[in-house]
Amino acid sequence: MHGPELVGWMLVALCGGVGASRLRPLRGGGPGRRAAAGEALMGFGMAVMAVPDPPVQPPPHAFTVLFGAAAVYELALAAGGSGHRPHHLHHAVGALAMVHMALAMASSPPGAHGHHAAGAAGGPVPAGAVTAVLLAYFAVYVLYAGARLVPAVPAVPRPGTAVASGAAPRPPEVAAACRLSMGIGMFAMLLAV
After folding, report:
1. SS3 at position 109
2. CA gap 127, 101 in Å, rounded
3. How far apart are the C-alpha atoms of 20 and 77, rounded to whole Å?
């Protein structure tokens, strides 16, 4: 990823934290286990990709293969009639965005800024157009996901009732906040492509 070093480290912290928080549901089992695994993979992959000037450069084609396989898997789940089709499609778009960024990394020399990966992608669509579409998708997703986290009716306690302080957020809210954070991180990383 190209851009200011501080932003890169902030993305590493954000994405690594999201990846680590999504490991917890893997231990307990349950219906959200598959989604949590995909989100943990995406969070850790984004964290590794965001490291500014790493001492050991991971091969970009490894990201392409890993996230290409993840995209195919998510598309297969979406086509399989799962009840979570929009969720699987969103994961597939995220994985394809990672493939796009990996191809951009592979086609640019170290230290290059503002590059385009049209030659590496080998397709007729310029990389700038793909980046613009992905930026638009993640901008809309972040706005939508953020609006869903805002309570519809503010919880105002009635006089004389106790307010629970320090109550931990429920797991669905944590998962939604993690998805929102990854959407913001993906948007920021795409800006640097």
Report:
1. coil
2. 10
3. 24
**Inter-residue long-range contacts of 36-39, CB under 8 Å, 24+ positions, other chains counted:** 36/175, 38/70, 38/74, 38/91, 39/91, 39/175, 39/178, 39/179, 39/182
The per-residue pLDDT for range 47-60, each reduced to its tens digit, is 998 888 888 877 87
* CA separation, residue 63 to residues 55, 92, 116 (Å): 17, 14, 18
CA-wise closest residue to 189 among 105, 109, 81: 105
CA distances from 107 to 49, 55, 127, 133 (A): 15, 19, 11, 20
CA separation, residue 108 to residues 65, 118, 120, 176 (Å):
18, 11, 9, 34
Helix, strand or coil, per DSSP, at residue 10: helix
Alpha-carbon gap, residue 27 to 82, rounded angstroms: 22
pTM of the entire structure?
0.77
- Residues 191 and 3 sit within 8 Å (Cβ to Cβ): yes
Most confident of 20-24, 123-127, 150-154: 20-24
